[in-house]
Fold this sequence. Notes:
Layout (H helix, E strand, L loop, with lengths): L32 H8 L8 E4 L6 E7 L2 E7 L10
Antiparallel strand pairs: 1-2, 2-3
Amino acid sequence: xxxxxxxxxxxxxxxxxxxxINISEPVSLNFNLHYFNNITKAATLSDTVTLxxxxxxxxxxxYKLPSGHIRYYFAPKIGGxxxx
Length: 84
C-alpha cells in the first residue's frame, strides 16, 4: 500500500507554491493510482488546485484556469488492496 501525506506549507517568497489545508474531519480513502495519475496531468494548466475529500463521496479535484476551471470527480476504491 502506498500512502500520500500532504502537509500545510507557506512559502512567503512564492505564495503560488504554498499549500493550505482546511479539515473539518479526518478521512481515509483509497484510489486507483493509475487513474489518479491521469487526472493530475491537468495540474500543469493551473497554479491553484483544490482537492475535496469526504467519506462516502467521490473526491472533487478542481484546477482553476484564467477563463474557468476543470473539475474531476473521482470515486474511491471499494474493497481490494492493489494500486492498479
